Amino acid sequence: MALIVQKYGGTSVGSPERIKNLARRVARFKALGHQIVVVVSAMSGETNRLIGLAREIMPEPDPRELDVMVSTGEQVTIGLTAMALMDLGIKAKSYTGSQVKIVTDNAHTKARILRIDDKSIQKDLKAGYVVVVAGFQGVDEKGNITTLGRGGSDTTGVALAAALKADECQIYTDVDGVYTTDPRVVPEARRLKSITFEEMLELASQGSKVLQIRSVEFAGKYKVKLRVLSSFEEDGEGTLITFEENEDMEQPIISGIAFNRDEAKITVLGVPDRPGIAYQILGPIADANVDVDMIIQNVSADGTTDFTFTVHKNEMGKALAILKDKVQAHIGAREISGDDKIAKVSVVGVGMRSHVGIASQMFRTLAEEGINIQMISTSEIKIAVVIDEKYMELAVRVLHKAFELEEA
Amino acid sequence: MALIVQKYGGTSVGSPERIKNLARRVARFKALGHQIVVVVSAMSGETNRLIGLAREIMPEPDPRELDVMVSTGEQVTIGLTAMALMDLGIKAKSYTGSQVKIVTDNAHTKARILRIDDKSIQKDLKAGYVVVVAGFQGVDEKGNITTLGRGGSDTTGVALAAALKADECQIYTDVDGVYTTDPRVVPEARRLKSITFEEMLELASQGSKVLQIRSVEFAGKYKVKLRVLSSFEEDGEGTLITFEENEDMEQPIISGIAFNRDEAKITVLGVPDRPGIAYQILGPIADANVDVDMIIQNVSADGTTDFTFTVHKNEMGKALAILKDKVQAHIGAREISGDDKIAKVSVVGVGMRSHVGIASQMFRTLAEEGINIQMISTSEIKIAVVIDEKYMELAVRVLHKAFELEEA
């Protein structure tokens, strides 16, 4: 008998019929003798409907009151889910974040979980109930309703699993696991049976949008056994996310290829090469709350250097304006330019730590296809390159083949 | 400076535009220096949508879980209302029933308020906030969400006014006050400036559906000054509901004419006239949770009597079946019959206590129009008759004229 936390997203609870399916799945786990905590999101579309309603009243909705409204999405789903279970003859009881209590800080719309009181849930589990908890929401010390921000239901699931010392936290999504890359781009992409936490972080942040990144960090911190599964498949095994490197010699060197075209590249040309220049360029960007991803600065040649970084495409205009208005003249840069026709492709794998030659194989593979590399950035378990966005799919396909990631 | 509780129903918050109108009205009161607590219902249609959703999952929804879901209707409205006020530059803060705390018993879907903790609200009012409270909902001693049942938002308004010792509780509806009778039947019907609590009770229970009856009883118990106003009129005075008889000599004898055609008449003919017979007839009806309104038993003639009572039209079939199956043979009644083509018309007024001749004037007026009276029932401040339903409008019009209730 295990204690399992199962998290179901908006599509899995998108209609009464789907909620009934979910209940039947939970019933099968319950019949095996497990204790089950179900965490649910709002029905798909509901959160956006509520935010839209709020904006009709107040163009920039007050965060406290927005949380009061938006949290009703999950509150409806927990009631429906508990009823669907009862309708199958299973004892079930719903909890809002505030009823649990999932105590958060008071950063409305993006609150962080401080602690979870697991007493009532433990009592209900012992009494044979399936406990249904509203994802995405909590309550601050003063009793104000808070939300954790988009994707926060994953975090609720993981945090509950940690608090309850659950044997496993299962995240049900519309994909059946983590793949070597996006199967829409490479049909031969293969589901990974397991992946390390660090690889998952790289894959998630690079655009494999399977899990919300904060929830994976949370799982890592509390060593929660996390599994991604499909809510539309009967008996999938999904992908297990592990927190220790596999000792197995057969472990693959590369786990997957991540990619995204959400970024734009900004280059500051002819920057005098002196201490503090990086701060002078990026300080004003950070002050404007523009997130920066890759940062590259090459060695100086003639006393000046070129400084390049990437931001989200939507923020390129803002970043360029800041640089031109506040930075260019100040630091004496020759030119500022932006390019949003780029893509980032990364090869990810813990195995590359102990295997040389991954980078050269990656670069050779791209060169053979005539794909020019504009930027390179590496970490312990990842090599990322920026290329012209029109070559993105090609690059992903040839790399997937070169590293032999296909279905066996 | 007064403390005013204003309650707005589903139509008054039925769209973002209407919520903005509501906020402008509250702003005008606030500008006069009053402290305002706003109680709101769910947006019209929302409660039914949620109940429908629940029934798709579970034909007879679990009451605890239904309350979890249905209470979200008002929770959305409090967020929107607080934002609409903020958008006008007014400090506002929302409260769910559980946040207030409005403590109720645990009778889910029809809970009764036990007590209200007014500390936080008083503090916010002193700090200059308009406080927006979700109607219709509360929380039981164990922290479960409860609802007060249909119309319960009126009760929330009155109960809050009592707990806060408010100067006035204003109930905003889609009518601009209490009328001598329904203006759709009698165009000359006149709005009453004030009406006593008892008259209001009679008018409300007889079908003048302006206020939810439990809220009026509540107001009477706690001596809350209650006013009914239109949410679509700028400067209406509405109708004040008072709890002491007006000493004014000019006080009208009759306040209004109430009517409804929701009832059906059931007659048990040829009942042996012996002690306990009323209980033997009505006991099984009550056991089946069928509400009975009028009850008439006439004096015995030949050792047998006829027993007549009224029930809601929808329950006539059920009541007849019970009588035929369980009662008729047992008590030896000759015949059981039902008639749902009836209407009840009542003349209501505290003044009739000290004025003889009201009943005879009523009966004469109906006789002059050839309207036959099937049943008569009287109280201190009301005379009700049951007639053929086809004469209902005619009866209301001629009585309204006979008692000189027209617009002056």
> Largest sheet of chain A at a glance?
8 strands, mixed
Report the principal-axis shape of chain A. Answer: globular
Give the strand content of chain A. 25-35%
Q: Tell me roughly what share of residues is in helical segments of chain A.
A: 25-40%
Biggest interface and residues each: A-B, 35 and 36 residues
CATH class type of the domain at 3-173 in chain A: Alpha Beta
Task: Predict the CATH topology of the domain at 3-173 in chain A.
Answer: Carbamate kinase
Mean pLDDT of chain A: 89
By helix and strand content of chain A, what is the structural category? alpha/beta
Q: What is the CATH homologous superfamily assignment of the domain at 3-173 in chain A?
A: Acetylglutamate kinase-like
The total of beta strands of chain A comes to 20
| Strand ordering within the main sheet of chain A | 3-6-2-1-9-11-12-10
Q: Supply Rg of chain A.
A: 24 Å
Please tell me the CATH architecture of the domain at 3-173 in chain A by its name: 3-Layer(aba) Sandwich
Oligomerization state: homodimer
Distance between the termini of chain A: 34 Å
Number of discrete helical segments of chain A:
13
Low-confidence stretches of chain A: none
